[in-house]
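Lab notebook page, bench 4
Experiment: in silico fold of construct C2
Operator: M.H.
Input chain length: 597 residues
Purpose: comparison with the prior construct
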Amino acid sequence: MIAPMTKYAFILLQGDEGRFLERLQELGVVDITRSIKPVDEHSAACLNESDALRRTIAKLEQVRYEGIQPAAVDSDKPVEDVRAAFEQLESLQGTLDHLYKEAEARRPWGEFSPARLKDLAEAGLTVRFYRTPLKRFDAGWAAEYPLQVVAQDSKTVWFVTISDDPAYSFPIAEIPAPKGTAAEALGEAEALAGQIDQVKARLLGLQKYLPQLREDLSGKMAQLDLYFAGKAAGSTAEGHIVTFTGFVPEDQADEAERRFADWQLFYLRENAVVEDNPPIQLKNNRFVRMFEVLTDMYGRPAYDGFDPTPFISVFFLLFFAFCMGDCGYGLILILIGLLLKKVDSFKDLSPLVVTLGVGTAVIGFFFHTFFSMDISQWAVFAPIKGIFLPGKIMGYDGTMVLSIIVGVVHICLAMCVKTYEETKNKGFVNSLGTWGWTLLIVGGVAVGALALIGVLDAALTKWIVIVLGVVSALGIFLLNDMHRSKLANIGVGLWDTYNTATGLVGDVLSYLRLYALGLAGSMLGLAFNNIGTMVLGDGSNVFLWIPFLLIVIVGHTLNIAMAALGAFVHPLRLNFLEFFKNSGYEGVGRHYNPLKK
């Protein structure tokens, strides 16, 4: 739900704003309306320093060098030292790569002495070096030139010529003489590798400054936040009085006001309204709170809107489980989620991954699938076979029918939410058009479902449908806007009818992706099982168990990775597009960001 906000207008003498903002920072509950972009050279410089710290921390966290012990490092300027170490490492690595290429280029020339080449040159003999593709090499050259082949492979020939003729010419261009032997280049590379290991050891040693760097970054961001808040002040009374606008969650307002009284602060208080553009704080239970990260990916609701997170929490979990659709994969996700608790960077995601794994395991069990095997055929589950999803419903695949049913429920719920929100914000009279569509579609679906299961007989169903149709038509075509003429309302109603009819069909069919993704993952996993079984044979050969296990483990690992990606993206799409469109949700709110340490 969206937490109600209390708006405050703070009034103080110029010169007191610094101490005032520091107190608010210590209090940590007042969201001061402020800029989020550099407003001058000072804030731009602070942002640059923060970015430098953030980049340094990110790069230093990724440093992992096997077999190298951290060096003992003392640094007064860890940011500069880390940057210099990475630059040195990059330079040395580039030189090392060049030396390895140089050694490979020298290798065909074998062992020779550059000093002997110099002696020959002083005697008037010039040695020239050549490299050419084998198909271009002409063995007849040896009859015309003093030529010696040094090395040859299936593609290339390396050779030299010796001549004292100043007017010497040869059919192909010569190449520079090697500057040394391959062994000498490898020796230089080995020495350079030692220097690289020293730089890597220094970087590992600099990791001890990570806590300090994180603290510096946090302090720099708090300082920058405080500076932006100060720049948001308004000046009145010829510059002698400064005003600030801030917002506090309603349930924390009393405590905040007690602190304001201690500070002898003058302020005006009123309940925040939409026109104030108050920040949005979401207050949900522990389960729903895990899914707020998904809501924030789209955008927080407007102050007079609704929090979609409770709906996302249920349907995203359900859709994710549909797409994975395998009890075994769910157990793997639970294990991954538990392991994420041990990784600082991902421990906040651990509860969400575990929850998604539990949902996948439960749905996968009812879909009677365990690592793409049909557990409904196992004798151990024979007594409870009736609880599994049937293979066919009304002659169609059970999972496909269930996906459509869930999609219809999802869209109907979205329309009910839209109707409620419009009635709350605009009043019943100004929402009659929306009420008409909701009665027609949601009411029609409800009546059809009751008739299908035999609760309503055919005659009663017919009269209910007629009444729903007439009442809905009044709202859709005549009363959709009380301030327009009836003819205009009819025109708008016809246009809405076309858009709704075509849009709803596409929206409902979009939920088939839940069935398709689950089926694709199941078939791919089954394919790996079949390949492994064919390799294993009857299992009598013990050595065939090794390739069998490799095929099954690697195959299902790849399948889980691909299925998890699809199971994240497509349920997110169904919530962000189908549900948000039919519920009228707009993510235009701004985050509640109180000034704090």
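Observations: The chain has 19 helices and twelve strands. The mean pLDDT is 85.
Next step: discuss at group meeting.
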